[in-house]
Design goal:
elongated; 65 residues; mainly beta
Length: 65
Amino acid sequence: MHLTTSVVTIDRAVVPEPVTDVVTEKTYITTEPEIEIRKPATLSQALTEPGVAVIKPKTRVRKES
Protein backbone atom coordinates (compact mmCIF):
# COMPACT_ATOMS: atom_id res chain seq x y z
CA MET A 1 0.00 0.00 0.00
CA HIS A 2 1.43 3.33 -1.06
CA LEU A 3 0.18 6.60 0.49
CA THR A 4 0.76 9.92 -1.16
CA THR A 5 0.36 13.26 0.57
CA SER A 6 -0.03 16.54 -1.16
CA VAL A 7 1.37 19.75 0.21
CA VAL A 8 -0.46 23.01 -0.43
CA THR A 9 1.50 26.22 -0.13
CA ILE A 10 -0.38 29.43 0.65
CA ASP A 11 1.32 32.72 -0.15
CA ARG A 12 -1.19 34.90 1.71
CA ALA A 13 -3.44 34.17 4.63
CA VAL A 14 -6.56 36.15 5.38
CA VAL A 15 -6.47 37.28 8.99
CA PRO A 16 -9.52 39.07 10.34
CA GLU A 17 -9.02 42.40 12.05
CA PRO A 18 -9.57 42.49 15.80
CA VAL A 19 -12.99 43.82 16.78
CA THR A 20 -13.61 45.74 19.98
CA ASP A 21 -17.14 46.05 21.29
CA VAL A 22 -17.71 48.91 23.68
CA VAL A 23 -20.29 48.09 26.31
CA THR A 24 -21.41 50.94 28.49
CA GLU A 25 -23.00 50.00 31.77
CA LYS A 26 -24.51 52.12 34.48
CA THR A 27 -24.16 50.85 38.01
CA TYR A 28 -26.74 51.89 40.57
CA ILE A 29 -25.91 51.32 44.23
CA THR A 30 -28.80 51.63 46.66
CA THR A 31 -28.20 51.64 50.40
CA GLU A 32 -31.24 51.41 52.62
CA PRO A 33 -31.55 50.77 56.34
CA GLU A 34 -32.61 47.36 57.59
CA ILE A 35 -33.86 46.96 61.15
CA GLU A 36 -32.86 43.84 63.03
CA ILE A 37 -34.18 43.09 66.51
CA ARG A 38 -31.61 41.25 68.60
CA LYS A 39 -33.09 39.30 71.45
CA PRO A 40 -31.21 38.05 74.50
CA ALA A 41 -29.74 34.57 74.09
CA THR A 42 -30.52 33.02 77.47
CA LEU A 43 -33.41 33.14 79.90
CA SER A 44 -31.39 35.01 82.53
CA GLN A 45 -30.44 37.65 79.97
CA ALA A 46 -34.06 37.89 78.84
CA LEU A 47 -35.15 38.61 82.39
CA THR A 48 -32.54 41.35 82.91
CA GLU A 49 -31.86 42.80 79.43
CA PRO A 50 -34.36 44.07 76.89
CA GLY A 51 -34.17 43.29 73.18
CA VAL A 52 -32.19 45.77 71.12
CA ALA A 53 -33.12 47.14 67.71
CA VAL A 54 -30.09 47.46 65.44
CA ILE A 55 -30.10 49.39 62.19
CA LYS A 56 -27.87 47.82 59.55
CA PRO A 57 -27.21 49.24 56.08
CA LYS A 58 -28.35 46.98 53.25
CA THR A 59 -26.68 47.59 49.90
CA ARG A 60 -28.06 46.51 46.52
CA VAL A 61 -26.12 46.81 43.28
CA ARG A 62 -28.01 46.97 39.98
CA LYS A 63 -26.36 47.15 36.57
CA GLU A 64 -28.03 48.32 33.38
CA SER A 65 -26.59 48.15 29.90
